[in-house]
Amino acid sequence: MPQGHSAPAMRVLIFDSGIGGMGVVQSLRDTHPTLHIDYLADTALFPYGEQPDAPLTLRIVSLLKSACDRLLPDILVVACNTASTIALPALRECLKIPVVGCVPPIRWAGRVSQTRTIGLLSTSATARRPYIIDLHQRFAADCRLLTHGARGLADLAERAFLGEPIADDDVRRELRQLFQQPFGTEIDTIGLGCTHYTFLMPAFTRLADQPVTWLDPAPAVARQVGMVMSQIAQEDRNARSARLLMTKAPSDCIRLERAVERLGFTSWEVFSPVSIPA
């Protein structure tokens, strides 16, 4: 490489059903400031947690195959717990690039809990999936796991990311459904089982009825991306602006643009593949 020229930035595509993956974007910006990041949100079907698995998996694979063909990323990050728990094997079989997923941090919680009673906040569908039982049995079998499938928290998190005020009572109501379960007063560690919840972390720590350690998987996902980056070769390609793509236009464009500008996205566009399962 000629002297004075820097290496081309590696390209990463981050995918989520909404803005939840922006927490991973922030962590990657902090650790790899020159990294080229594109972002795709399937806002037309947000939230994923309430969708049936089989058609949702088909949609995710079709959507991301189309996006990768267009954006040519070096790495795909599925920054969505629901999508990761159902679609990672199919994506890795379909795509020819590394795929990094995001799963509920039950193993992490099991490593740090002192009371051996851990909590998980997730969407209601994620809380019901056998995948959670498997994670618990494999990595934290000696812990009591209490879960709360909080349907409303993802919507609250989207609003918080956009800078809208969130009522304390709305957050406190969801937290108490976890703490007021049998043995809930023994919880000392809570994992976030939905990437959207990153943006409610200040409210969680302020409003929890008892002191707990909160585990946000976004920094861990960013570290995993860094490890994958160190193992693959970069292609010499022309630089371009980061792209923010959504399958449905936002209801408040001004708030969205203001929120994502600090993360390096100067505009957004609707992503319309030729055909994806509805």
From TrEMBL:
GO terms for biological process: cell wall organization; peptidoglycan biosynthetic process; regulation of cell shape. Pathway: Cell wall biogenesis; peptidoglycan biosynthesis. The keyword Signal does not apply. Its EC number is 5.1.1.3. It catalyses: L-glutamate = D-glutamate. InterPro entries: Asp/Glu/hydantoin_racemase, Asp/Glu_race, Asp/Glu_racemase_AS_1, Glu_race. The active site is at residues 80, 194. It holds the Pfam family Asp_Glu_race. Substrate binds at residues 16-17, 48-49, 81-82, 195-196. One of its GO terms (molecular function) is glutamate racemase activity. Keywords: Cell shape, Cell wall biogenesis/degradation, Isomerase, Peptidoglycan synthesis. Provides the (R)-glutamate required for cell wall biosynthesis. PANTHER family: GLUTAMATE RACEMASE (PTHR21198). Belongs to the aspartate/glutamate racemases family. This is Glutamate racemase. The gene is murI.
